[in-house]
Amino acid sequence: MANDSTDRIVADLRRWIATAPPGARVPSNRELMARHGASPVTVQKAMRTLVALGLVDSRPGVGTFVRGIRPPRPVDYAWQTSALGAAQSRLLGLPSAQRAPSPDAIALHAGYPDRELLPERLVRSAIARAARTDAAATRSPVAGAPDLQAWFAAELASAAPAGVTPPAARDVLILSGSQSGLSSIFRALVGPGQPLLIESPTYWGAILAATQANVRLVPVASGPDGPDLDDVDRAFEQTGARAFYVQPTYANPTGAQWSAERGRAVLDIARRHGAFLVEDDWAHDLAIDTDPRPIAAFDDDGHVIYLRSLTKSVSPALRVAAVTARGPARERILADRAAESMYVSGLLQAASLDVVTQPAWRTHLRSVREQLRARRDVLVSSLAEHAPLAHLEHVPRGGLNLWLRLPGDTDVEGFVRACEGRGVIVADGAEWFPAEASAPHIRLNYSGPSPERYPEAARVIAEELDRAL
Amino acid sequence: MANDSTDRIVADLRRWIATAPPGARVPSNRELMARHGASPVTVQKAMRTLVALGLVDSRPGVGTFVRGIRPPRPVDYAWQTSALGAAQSRLLGLPSAQRAPSPDAIALHAGYPDRELLPERLVRSAIARAARTDAAATRSPVAGAPDLQAWFAAELASAAPAGVTPPAARDVLILSGSQSGLSSIFRALVGPGQPLLIESPTYWGAILAATQANVRLVPVASGPDGPDLDDVDRAFEQTGARAFYVQPTYANPTGAQWSAERGRAVLDIARRHGAFLVEDDWAHDLAIDTDPRPIAAFDDDGHVIYLRSLTKSVSPALRVAAVTARGPARERILADRAAESMYVSGLLQAASLDVVTQPAWRTHLRSVREQLRARRDVLVSSLAEHAPLAHLEHVPRGGLNLWLRLPGDTDVEGFVRACEGRGVIVADGAEWFPAEASAPHIRLNYSGPSPERYPEAARVIAEELDRAL
Questions:
Q1: Which of A6, A378, A469, B444 has the greatest number of CB atoms lying within 10 Å of its CB?
Q2: Average pLDDT, chain A
Q3: What is the mean pLDDT of residues A178-193?
Q4: Burial level of A61, CB count in 10 A (0-12/13-18/19+)?
Q5: What is the pLDDT of residues B218-241, one digit of tens each?
Q6: Cα–Cα distance between B392 and A333 in angstroms, integer?
Q7: A51 phi, psi to nearest 5 deg
Q8: B137 vs A118: CB contact, 8 Å cut-off?
Q9: Interface probe with B: pick from A182, A244, A345, most Cβ of B within 10 Å
Q10: Chain B partners of A70 at a C-beta cutoff of 8 Å?
Q11: How would you classify residue B125: left for phi > 0, otherwise alpha for psi between -120 and 50, otherwise beta?
């Protein structure tokens, strides 16, 4: 139905309808054809869209009229108060990474890369091809499309050293985005009231999913080299936790990449405590200076639950991720996914597999690496020049974020608001802490639009930081 | 990447690789071109797919070889036993409606309509169009695409009588399938350990979602006219439940359609008890003899939580549904969806809206109505002729299923197995009961493939029923 001129006529009429009185006559098709230089077919399509949206009524032979909107009655849903009871406050309200910025602001708060970092042409043609396959007309198996399962398994197997049996295709479960995977893992492997070790700071989406699953969060401090091994051991020992959620590669927000030795040491600790390591490899396709080497590649006895997503590197419209898990853990997660959502659209799976098996995908990844490097370096040097008070704890070797510590007595909320007032949107670091923030921080994402304005953003940050102190 | 001849070559080589020893040389591109009459580009694409799937290694200038598969080590995940603890048995194992039938069986067990009942051509072109829009490259808002929210709201508003304020577009939350909606509603509005009234029998997916949410199920018997009003009132009274899950229109499995009076009476009871009515209008687009009239259309104080899905009527690949809720209930459900999955692919939303706003969509719905009528009538008359012992409680006026009561002492499990052995797959009615089945039943779906074989299926059912008694 949609083509550009239909869309334009619909948009134009919607603006007009918004201020027109109910019952007003919509311009005739003939008038609209003349005004927009459009064909009869195009104008008819636009009118049918407006009818379908309930904005106008068409009376054949008479004309088309703005729909009489019933006067809204003042409503009060007070009765719901006691039906619903108290809410988990952490679940309500959008985190800053999800907010839509005003179009002329410098958006350093987002969690998703700008369009120019995505393989848009590849994605569009992959979708068009998938539309012609059976994937557009049939149901996917609950665990996912076998070919896509095999691709995720092969990716992990390619990093496995000799002597380690890599996961098989059937160990891979396809998800509609890794957030769904986090929710299922925490529900299925931890459960209400049970302890879950979690890095602090860490990804707010994981904190949110864990909160929703009513697990008991046990924060473990983590820095540029990952968590302290004695801390991890002690936390398992003292709480009896059976799972630890970690981001060993380009952690969000800190950018930390653990050494291979640290990764294996943490895996050994988890083994000793009969526990799972939930490895969220969110930035696998967003490397800059190093290459990712998942801990999961060193595991062959089912201790690592491995999450990988394509949403951030392929397209936000192809919401596809995978969790790899072995043994009974796989069955538990699969059962939770079946109860939660039955299956993932096969269309999205087919299009995603098409993209990542194209030769152009490798080319694209190399180009993203260079773009991220350039963006990161401009933001780092702009901040070093203009805002030395914002202390960069660690230059990330991959991922999308800088994690900056502010002077001890900064009012971060006020500072973030003041920056926003001047058109620079930054994220309050408090959102990444499962408990109180250990120090004032902000997170700056260098994958948003307008990298050429980073120096300007750094100057605003510096000025508002001076003012906040 | 995918086109028919590439796919054929890949499939052919995969079969060969499955039995070839590791290190075996794959036929040269020249040989493959000759064997398949394919172009060099096509053959190269096939080889790249096999490399990407990890099945072969390509050594430039030497050849392509079957990948050395590491010998699988016997593994035992016994350590997970105590890490995971006991499981909720209801969550494990696939219900029969989700099982894939053998291709030559007569499949009367499925929950999804056959391809010939779906608007496949419309769907394919809608996806292709959506691939060219912004929906393929951007993130959808958490609550859904505004135009699709508006369409769902307009659908409900068109059924609202004068004097009732219909829900607005913002009251509609877009979901990836109604199963996700059930899970969120039960988590967000009922919660662990709290009572939920539920019709008995009812949709197994709702029972599954409620089990996953750890709510306490309170079954209320429901027949061809819906539940008894005194039963409903008493169940609210005795349990203090704040929600009742219902399918008032072409209920699954019974096919019941409540009268308008019954619907309003149940709504009044819910109002008196300060409770929600969760109305699952799953078969809105699958009417035969009557038209659906949602109870939600009569509600303007936020008592009805209204679920509607497009998965069964548009395409199983376009997993799109909507929940309409007003007041704080909307905020709770939205917060749960954000924590569970962030947002729904905008591509699926754009393609779905495109389909349902095409004039051909209305034509398609009329044709589906006639096809369902014919299929239902053939199955009803075949059973009446051949299998009078299978008692049809009610000829459904819409939906996809016949609900048959078997003689009191039938061993349903054995009967279902025996039918399957003879190539007729039927579903054991026990799966639709939240507790013990009140009597032996089977459910027969008349929207699967091969309706011309219904008389044959009825004869098999009759013979095996005789044998089971």
A1: B444
A2: 91
A3: 95
A4: exposed
A5: 999 998 899 999 999 999 999 999
A6: 38
A7: -65, -45
A8: yes
A9: A345
A10: 162, 165-166
A11: alpha
Q: Does B259 touch chain A (CB under 8 A)?
A: no
| Record: contact A84-B165, CB cut-off 8 A | no
Indicate if B316 and B218 belong to the same structural domain: yes
d(CA B296, CA B153): 11
Residue B23 Ramachandran class (φ > 0 left, ψ -120 to 50 alpha, else beta):
left
Q: How far from chain centre, in Å, is Cα B358?
A: 24
**Angstrom distance (rounded) from CA A49 to CA B357:** 6
Please state whether the predicted TM-score (pTM) of the whole model is above 0.90: no
Cα–Cα distance for residue pair B264/B259, rounded to 1 Å: 9
Within an 8 Å CB–CB cutoff, is residue A360 touching chain B? no
Residues A105, A138: one domain?
A: no
Q: Taking residues A143-159, what's their average pLDDT?
A: 94
How far apart are the C-alpha atoms of B292 and B287, rounded to whole Å? 7
Write down the pLDDT at residue B18. 76
A342 with B48: Cβ contact below 8 A: no
**Is the domain of B340 the same as that of B230?**
yes
Lowest mean pLDDT among A20-24, A138-142, B170-174: A20-24
- In single-letter form, the type of residue at position A42 comes to T
Residues B146, B60: one domain?
Answer: no
Among residues B300, B332, B357, which one ends one of the domains?
A: B357
Least confident of B90-94, B202-206, B420-424: B90-94
Structural domain harbouring B45: 2-66
Q: Are residues A99 and A172 in the same domain?
A: no
Chain B residues 17-76 with CB within 8 Å of chain A = 48-49, 52-54, 70, 72-73, 75
Do strands B391-392 and B401-405 pair parallel, antiparallel, or not at all (unpaired)? antiparallel
A212 touches chain B (CB under 8 A): yes
pLDDT at A87 over 80: no
ipTM at complex level = 0.86
Structure tokens at A324: 């790899």
* DSSP codes of every residue in B219-266: EEEEETTEE-HHHHHHHHHHH---EEEE--SS-TTT-----HHHHHHH
